[in-house]
Amino acid sequence: MSERAPQPNPESMPKSIETSQEYKRPAHNKTERIQTNQEKQETISRARNEVKKEAKNSGDIKLDHGG
Known about the structure:
Blueprint: H1 14-23, H2 26-58
């Protein structure tokens, strides 16, 4: 059983325990998740806009708008 699911020694990795305790804070974790989601959306929209600009400039790439 122990060979199939090896668990890391807490003594060798104390940082992981500290970070896990930090992420257990509900308010702090919620605000972080909301910010990261907003950042992801912004990054995705920026990337899509850049791809559209490149496609218009090159003229070789055709974008499908989900249709």
